[in-house]
Amino acid sequence: MSLDLRRAIALACLVGASMTTAADADEIVVASGAIGTDLVELAAQFDAFTEQSGHTVKLVSMPASTSEQFGQYRLWLAARNPDVDIYRTDVIWAPQLARHFVDLKEPLADVIPNHFPAIIESQMVEGRLVAAPMYTDAPALYYRKDLLEKHGKKPPETWDELTAIAVEIQEKERAEGQSQLWGFLFQGAAYEGLTCDALEWIVSSGGGKIVEEDGSISVNNPQAAAALTRAQSWIGSISPGGTLAYKEEDTRGVWQAGNAVFMRNWPYAYALGNGTDSPIRGKFDVTTLPVGAEGQSSAATLGGWNLAVSEYSEHRQAAIELVRYMTGEEAQKYRAIQNSRLPTLMSLYEDAEIAEKQPLIPRWQEVFLNAVPRPSAATKGSYNEMSSEFWTAVNNTLAGRGTAEENLKRLEARLTRLKRDGWK
Ligand code: GLC
Q1: Could you report the per-residue pLDDT of 327-371, keeping only the tens digit for each?
Q2: Are residues 205 and 279 in the same domain?
Q3: CB 90 within 8 A of CB 305
Q4: Who contacts 122 (Cβ-Cβ below 8 Å, separation ≥6)?
Q5: Which domain, by its residues, includes 390?
Q6: CATH number, domain at 65?
Q7: Parts of the chain with a pLDDT under 70
Q8: Which of 38, 66, 306, 388 to mutate to test the pocket of ligand 1 (most atoms within 8 A of CB)?
Q9: Shared domain check, 265 and 221
Q10: What is the pLDDT of residue 4?
Q11: 19 CA to centre of ligand 1 in angstroms
């Protein structure tokens, strides 16, 4: 089918959609996790879709942790649950859940070329597009411009520099009465977020990607151990003891109250930190995450969220229409401006309004295009178990339950057992 014909069909579907009468209007159920102001955004976008299509949308709100969402979704999908039509899916889930999702390659053929090819590629499993991208994600090092200037510092380039600056500013500011101030916040809880953070420390120190593209387990090496030992030294010194249970929103809470010099977080914290009610509005900027040593390159873990239509949905057509809307230009632009979420549509990186309102976004194109994918393609259906073994080993190390060397050795043995005669 020619592209023009596809466009014409898509247009006809859209016109048809806008003529939906109450009698053939569907109620579409979307399961999604939410952090920050995601719920407000989703509600506004669902309303706009209802206005255009006549279909109504119901949200099933899930816990913020991607690991908890995954556990629940896997159960529902295994039970062929028809009650949820659309799942908002993490970039890493495609290979594990592919068989439960509708192939969107044909229905969205006219708009797929508008997205960055690598992002579409990340959701392709055996030639099927199992989810369509809402936004991509790559973290930043947030830093307080005012505090760095006051103490005569530049944003750090290496993790050791970050540590030294954080120690110094934390000490001096506390001596001046800022007793709540911490040097560096990151996500240290035992969940997928810690896999992202620790992968960055290890890759940026030359320690590999836990499991390499060819499936080999590389994580037990001296560079990785040194990176984890360094992170362990932050706990209770420049990072609060509570870090061992911190997820994204816990770190943002401390940061946005004005109680930290540095924070590792995703771009959503940028819009929120500059919100009219934020105590740190205008006082911070972002840069790329530090490197292990000069000459090494910064590593940002590739994140991002997509929408997948369940094979067990009884409202497939309407669900695909909603996915088309939520991943399209209007919705992505709204999301970029309101929540500083990185669009996956190439044209939006030329959009003057986005650049003016959220200057992080055009700056971050290069960062996400070079971001490090987690080994979800390499470990196939075992990614979640692999990641869970990894974050457990890292969380234990941070908590002082065994040294980095001991924990990585044990991790290697456990991953070898999980892999057995090849990742499946
Ligand atoms: C962000 C990323 C997602 C990642 C999660 C970890 O939401 O977009 O890919 O898995 O953080 O907490």
Answers
A1: 999 999 999 999 999 999 999 999 999 999 999 999 999 999 999
A2: yes
A3: yes
A4: 91, 94, 302, 304, 373
A5: 139-302+373-424
A6: 3.40.190.10
A7: 1-23
A8: 66
A9: yes
A10: 46
A11: 37
